[in-house]
Structures are given as structure tokens and as C-alpha cells.
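Entry type: protein chain
Record version: 2
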Amino acid sequence: MNVNIETSWKEQLEDEFEKPYFSKLVDFVKTEYQNNTCYPQGSEIFAAFDHCSFTDVKVVIIGQDPYHGVGQANGLCFSVNDHIDIPPSLINIFKEIETDLGVPYPTTGNLQRWAEQGVLLLNATLTVRAHQAGSHQKKGWEEFTDAVIKCISDKKENVVFLLWGGFAKKKGAKIDRNKHYVLTSGHPSPLSANRGYWFGNRHFSTTNTYLSKVGKKTVEW
């Protein structure tokens, strides 16, 4: 099946694209986009891969669903388009970076700059119907993104996986911890963060310390 995705990922995942579940998923997504307003826009469904090639991946952040409000989702987890209000979870991510690294709070919630440094911003489900959270779950995306995580775990070394909250921890359960560095904490959403499960995790400085140690370029968060 011809999937419009960055070349190095196409090579790694070509077997996945030929599986029956993926064909059903493509049919479902096409029908949804024809009959409903869905996010992100079609050209950005695989943006996480297009902005961060397989070769370049050194950090993986796992989210759940794209944002389902108008103009928010851009195909990168936790990220929103320029000129869109920064959502609560991302506000808490930026607050932690500010405390952890002394990096000033940014003016945009667009995380494309992270992706282009080798941070794969992977949602478990890559599409959603407008204003209906979780509406495209259990249609095949989770199987596909599990295969992506397994591919990275099996074929790369010394990747940092940031698993925030129970959902991400389950999603990353099969990562080979002998080859990779896995950091876990509560989710940055206000509900979790305000109960003490997010702030102070220092994941951003810890990630950079590890990347330095294994001879990789650090991320400018």
C-alpha cells in the first residue's frame, strides 16, 4: 500500500502497511475525513514521522489522541499550531522545562522544533473526529503505533523514551530497557500535575545528560 510517509519510515514499516488491519484503518480514516470534520488535516496525519526520520530518532514522547478543537492538532503529540492558545498539559510541560533548565517560556506551542532535533512526538491514535475525544481509538492506529515503538526498540539503541501517565506507561511496556533509557512520571495534565505527579521530574535535563553520555547531541528544549 502506498502510504505518504517519510522515506526511512516507509522502509522500516513497509510490512505493516501491507497487513489487513492497516488496509481497514485506511478505509475507515478516508470515510471519516470525507463525511466529518477530522483532525489533523490529512497532510499532517504522519507529521511526527515526516519531521523526525527513523535515522534521527533519539527521544520518543508518547501521547494519546490528537487535540480535537479547531486548528489545534498538527500531527505531533502535545503540540499545537502557531497562534493557537497553549493547552493546559503543554503549559505544564513548559513550566517544568523552565524550572528544570532555566529555558524561558516559549511564545508558541508548536513543537516542530523538537521533532526536527530527533524527538518523535507520537500519539497512539493519529486522527480524531472534531470535538469527539477518542473517536478514532480502537480502529487500528494503536496496533500501528505499537509496531512503531517495537521497531525503534528492536532496531535502534540508546533512545530515551518519556512515558507520562498510565496510558503511556502501558504503551511502552515492551520497550527493551537493556538497550534504551526509559523515564516515567505522572501526566502533565492539571489533574495529575497539581497532585504532585509531574512537576520536579526533571525529565528534560535528565534526557540531555543521558544523550551526552552516549555521544548524542542534546535537545534544545
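Comment: The chain is about 40% helix and 10% strand.
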